[in-house]
């Protein structure tokens, strides 16, 4: 049975957010094209600065062979060990300049992250799981997929249906079963001055 790790929250949040997490155990079942399209449609409707929509996604399905292997080989060894089981790998890419005038868009990475976040929530709603990775070779990804200047690879993404942790190595199983944790709200929600705990927050 697939492992669930719902968040333990101080305040009520939507169940999709509570249930979303980043497993490493993927089942061999392919992702239906309609569902894959829904994930990218969700990303499409993310908010962005001046509606620039600076996100791009390179998608590689396992049943496509060469494209999948080329993206898999951009991952660091530790991520390749489990991501090879995912039926879909993706690479998010940010356009670093505004369309008009070509000035730097300092919000581009933020906006790509927002789009990826909406993709993750849509995946949870459809019974899929997503694991985003910083562990990949940016230079190799740029060369492999001929990403032009002015665009930056942001994150590698594995997605599919979740499997039982037993398909992983003992070391990865232990990571999979480790309880989820987050900083307390008081550690990053301030009021008045930096570091001053917001008065409206509940005391733990």
Please give a structural write-up.
It contains seven helices and four strands. It is an alpha+beta fold and 204 residues long. It has one domain: NADH Oxidase. A four-stranded antiparallel β-sheet has the order 1-2-4-3, sandwiched between helices. The two termini are 33 Å apart. The model has no long low-confidence stretch (mean pLDDT 96).
- Judged by helices, strands and strand pairing, the structural class is alpha+beta
Spatial shape: globular
CATH superfamily: NADH Oxidase
Helix content: 25-40%
Head-to-tail CA distance between termini = 33 Å
User: What low-confidence regions span 5 or more consecutive residues with pLDDT below 50?
Assistant: none
**Biggest sheet, open or closed, and with what strands and sense?**
4 strands, antiparallel
- CATH top-level class: Alpha Beta
